Amino acid sequence: MESRKNGKIGEYVAEKFLASRGYEILERNYKKKVGEIDLIAKYEDYIIFIEVKLRSGTTHGLPIEYVTKKKQEKIIRTAHIYLEEQEKNVRFDVIAIIKEDNKYHVEHVQNAF
Length: 113
Description:
Blueprint: H1 2-20, E1 24-32, E2 35-43, E3 46-50, H2 69-87, E4 94-100, E5 103-109
Antiparallel strand pairs: 1-2, 2-3, 4-5
């Protein structure tokens, strides 16, 4: 229970830190069968998958040392699922404009290709 509470605190601190630097938080605690991603953010042209680790002191190692290879693999698999889901919301449209007699005729072709 205590670790879950500390996890939530760490995620809150991380979120505020990122927001103060211009990151847009897209998802919190994104969960799938293969794993979980603490935060998903957007910054400039990047989608960023963020694992948050909070530790009380460094007696047992640095927080980054707890992001094991196994954990990294779970995050990567979960990120692939997230990206696949986002692709469902992608489409390619064409706006076709013809100018005749100083008038513009606009046609919006959804899902053009």
